Structures are given as structure tokens and as C-alpha cells.
Amino acid sequence: MTVSINLKRIVDDSYSIQIGPLPEINFEGKVAVLTNPKVAGLHLHTLLSRISAKEVYVITIPDGEHYKTLETIEFILDRMFDHRLNRKSLLVAFGGGVIGDMGGFSASLYNRGIDFIQIPTTLLSQVDASVGGKTGINNRYGKNLIGAFHQPRAVYIDPSFLKTLPSREFGAGVAEIVKMAVTFNAPFFEWLELHDLREGDNLLVAIKKAVETKAAVVEEDEKEQGLRAALNYGHTFGHVIENETKYETYLHGESVAIGMVMANELACECGLMERSEAERVKALLERYELPLSYPITDIEKFYQAFFLDKKSADSAITFILPRGIGGVEITDKIEADTVKKILTMFKGAGA
Ligand SMILES: NC(=O)c1ccc[n+]([C@@H]2O[C@H](COP(=O)([O-])OP(=O)(O)OC[C@H]3O[C@@H](n4cnc5c(N)ncnc54)[C@H](O)[C@@H]3O)[C@@H](O)[C@H]2O)c1
Ligand SMILES: O=C(O)C(=O)C[C@@H](O)[C@H](O)[C@H](O)COP(=O)(O)O
Ligand SMILES: [Zn+2]
């Protein structure tokens, strides 16, 4: 006898991303706000003045990528139980990408999944991390290796939160903006070359462009079965760098910047990108004081780490290589020797 379960269904997980002043949040059930001491000190009063709900709780976790762990998720879930949250409750992730990734993951787990909204407060989380429903944590094997796709119910991007952002964090966000432009939008890249994001309304324009670009990709391929992998440009290398340096030396956006330089070298080697195009990307990253090189110490160890990347399967590593500026190639056909040749260029003092 065969019993079949037909689970083909259409789930409407659509949501809107509002860019502008933080709106009023009116909610009938209980709300838990997840944040960290730094963001709370600077901006929690603004958020709390906008929320009206049955009960509002604040869950505070330590700041930093070091705490993006399963242990912290357990702490968050415990506080959610302490506050007797239920399936009709809402979690609000209020902070940078670390808070967003862990808030979303906790919401995906609690009672097998509750609603959450993203209120990103760093440039990186406003242009990238808050959009698209990738949530998760790091473990000793690498970055974001445990997690879930869990889409937020809404994303509220208020650029005025960025007034308190340190310039190094600003640069890290620019790296992800450059990523979107190089892979999907040549006119946007040219616009970025001509406009300084620290001046006038340029940042607002760039946030909108980056969010539109990412939203279109996620709409096309929510669970990274194909196209969405292109958003990982710079990350195959970047995640190895972050893990090797124990999240102490580079911010996420900074290791992505280095990773893009490395991916560009590989793309040049494979005939996908002109040297002049790789130089233009470098020049743009350099303008925001982003690092462009990383001294690889052990080529084989660095190479082996690619096999833990979520895009890798069995013995094939997937690389995201730019096709000039404004195009992208997702490939698992690059020879090991070619990759190692590029890694060797970064050995020791770097390229
Ligand atoms: N889910 C996704 O699609 C996605 C996309 C990109 C990055 N990420 C993840 O996001 C994380 C990086 O995010 P991030 O760069 O925002 O780092 P982060 O969350 O660590 O924030 C950076 C620092 O800025 C502080 N901060 C936050 N808002 C501030 C403000 N308004 N003023 C002053 N300081 C403020 C934070 O407390 C922290 O110290 C990484 O873990 C990365 O893996 C996820
Ligand atoms: O949304 C995506 O898809 C991305 O790849 C965005 C990346 O900037 C982000 O760092 C993401 O967390 C990396 O995804 P991962 O699946 O490699 O962990
Ligand atoms: Zn990223």
C-alpha cells in the first residue's frame, strides 16, 4: 500500500520593504524586540515610542559576530518562553545583520515558527541582510552553516538610524552595495563610480537601488536553487577569511570586499573579466577604505574550506564569478589548480 501526501501548495510569503521614517507599529498580540546594548542605547527609545501592542518585551543579547551562535539562540528562545510568547506573537529584530539573522532564526524555531519583522540599523543590514529571509548562525565549521529560510512579515528601513554608524561599518555596507552592482547592474556601478555615498541624497538612492536589486533576485529564486547564489559573489572566499580570522580581524563586509577582489582575479584568469574592470572594482572599494587583500598562510587549508560552503556539493565547489561588470557566472567547473594559482597570488603579504 502506498499513502501519498500531496504538499504542493502556494504559500504567500509576500511582504513589503518600506524605506523612510519608521512607521507606527500597531500589534494586537505580544511583541518581543531583539536587540543589543549598543543599538538599545542609541535607538531603542525611538523604536519603543512607535510600538503599540498588548505587551512589549525587550530581549538584549551581547553585541558582535562572536555571539552569532546556537548558544545565543537558546538564550533568546528561553527569554521568549519566559515572556510566554505564543504563535500569535511577533518578534522584532532591531539592529544590524547579526541581530537580523538571529532574530529571524529564533522566530523560525519558536513554536515551529512565528512572525517577525526586520528593522535594520546598519547600512549593511539595510541594503542586504534584512531582505530575503536568510537567517542563521555560525559554528566552528564555518559561517551561517545552520539556519532557515524564514521571510519577515515586513522590513522597515529608516536611514536616519545610520547617523550614529561608525565609518568602518559604513564601508562594510558599501561592499554589499558594490556586490549587487557588479553582479546585476552595470549602470548602477557606473553611477557609484560617479557619486560619493557620503554626500547629499546619494546614500538614499543607493539603498533603494540595492534593495530593489536584491528583492528582484529573491522573488525569482527564494531558496537559492540557482540565481540567488549570485548574491554570494565575494562570499565563497570571504566566509573562509572570516572563519580563519575568528571574526576578529575583518567585518563581514570587509571580508566580502577582499573576497570580491579574489573572485575578480579568478574571473580574469578564466577570461570572464577584463583586468581594467577588476581595477575599477578595486578603485571603488578603496574609496571607502575597504581592505583588498588577505595574507593566506596555508593554500591547501584555505582551498579545503570551500568544501564546507553551502553552495558546494560532493566534490564540486561553486564559484560566483563576475562576467565583466553587470553580469555573473555561477560555475562549478573551475579546476582546482586554477583556483590554487589565484590563492597563491595572495599568499603571505597578499596581492
Ligand atoms: N541574511 C542575509 O541575507 C545577510 C546578508 C548580509 C549579511 N548578513 C549577516 O549580517 C552580519 C553583518 O551585519 P552587520 O554588518 O550589520 O553587523 P552587525 O550586526 O555586527 O552590526 C555592526 C555593528 O554596528 C552596531 N550598530 C548597529 N546599528 C548601529 C547604529 N545605527 N549606530 C551605531 N552602531 C550600530 C552593532 O551593534 C555592531 O557593533 C553578518 O553576520 C552576516 O553574515 C546576512
Ligand atoms: O541573501 C543572500 O542570498 C546572500 O547571499 C546575501 C549575503 O550578503 C549574506 O552574507 C548571506 O548571509 C550569505 O549567505 P550564505 O547562504 O552564504 O550564508
Ligand atoms: Zn554578505
TrEMBL record:
Cofactor note text: Binds 1 divalent metal cation per subunit. Can use either Co(2+) or Zn(2+).
Main location: cytoplasm
Record: residues binding Zn(2+): E176, H235, H252
Protein residues bound to NAD(+): 63-68, 97-101, 121-122, 134, 143, 161-164
Domain named 3-dehydroquinate synthase C-terminal: residues: 173-312
A GO MF label: nucleotide binding
TM helices/strands, residue ranges: 89-110
Top class in the EC scheme: lyase
Top-level taxon of the source organism: Bacteria
Keyword Cytoplasm in annotation: yes
GO cellular component terms, A-Z: cytoplasm
Signal sequence bounds: none
Cofactor(s) listed: NAD(+); Zn(2+); Co(2+)
Keyword terms of this UniProt record: Amino-acid biosynthesis, Aromatic amino acid biosynthesis, Cobalt, Cytoplasm, Lyase, Membrane, Metal-binding, NAD, Nucleotide-binding, Transmembrane, Transmembrane helix, Zinc
Catalytic activity reported: 7-phospho-2-dehydro-3-deoxy-D-arabino-heptonate = 3-dehydroquinate + phosphate
Keyword Amino-acid biosynthesis in record: yes
Function summary: Catalyzes the conversion of 3-deoxy-D-arabino-heptulosonate 7-phosphate (DAHP) to dehydroquinate (DHQ).
Family affiliation: Belongs to the sugar phosphate cyclases superfamily. Dehydroquinate synthase family.
PANTHER family (UniProt xref): 3-DEHYDROQUINATE SYNTHASE, 3-DEHYDROQUINATE SYNTHASE, CHLOROPLASTIC
HAMAP family tied to this protein: DHQ_synthase (MF_00110)
Protein name in the entry: 3-dehydroquinate synthase
Biological source species: Sulfuricurvum kujiense (strain ATCC BAA-921 / DSM 16994 / JCM 11577 / YK-1)
Gene this chain is encoded by: aroB
